[in-house]
Write a structure and sequence with these properties.
Blueprint lengths: L4 E2 H4 L4 E4 L2 E4 H12 L2 E6 L3 H12 L5 E5 L4 H11 L3 H6 L7 E4 L2 E4 L1 H10 L2 H8 L5
Parallel strand pairs: 1-5, 4-5
Antiparallel strand pairs: 2-3, 4-6, 6-7
Protein name: Cytochrome c domain-containing protein
Subcellular location: Cytoplasm
InterPro entries: Cyt_c-like_dom, GlrX-like_pln_2, Glutaredoxin, Thioredoxin-like_sf
């Protein structure tokens, strides 16, 4: 059975300075995690809705990468999400991502509502295939 990755275990403790702007390696590790995995679910520890998304995806044959978020690192994670979301115009209008926050194919897909709506409409499986999360 797959285990969730605790947020603190993925974060290097070093920071680097680039021309006056300081960036932490955490930003790049989350960006790298999202880019390298077809489906990534950022979930609050013990959240039942996060568990529902995980079970739904596993029911389709997808083994999502789970990333646990707790109260101490939630604000930092939300800030990092805003840097990952592609469209700059959407960033201004979009509220912080809900948890679970689901990334499919390197792009922010949404939370429980979007995943369930795509499942009910039949759009979820083709999207997962396109992202490389499903082989059949």
């Amino acid at each position: 059975m797959q285990q969730a990755l605790p947020y603190k275990d993925c974060l290097p403790t070093t920071t680097s300075s680039n021309g006056g702007a300081t960036t932490t390696a955490a930003n790049s590790s989350i960006t790298k995690l999202v880019a390298e995995n077809p489906v990534v679910v950022f979930a609050r520890s013990g959240c039942c809705m996060c568990h529902v998304v995980k079970l739904l995806l596993q029911g389709h044959g997808v083994n999502p990468t789970m990333f646990d978020i707790n109260e101490q690192n939630e604000a930092a994670t939300i800030e990092e999400f805003s840097k990952i979301i592609d469209n700059p115009e959407e960033k201004a209008d979009r509220p912080p991502p809900p948890f679970p926050a689901v990334f499919v194919g390197g792009n922010f897909f949404g939370g429980l509502d979007e995943v369930m709506a795509a499942h009910i409409s039949g759009e979820l499986v083709p999207l997962l295939r396109k992202a490389g999360a499903l082989w059949l």
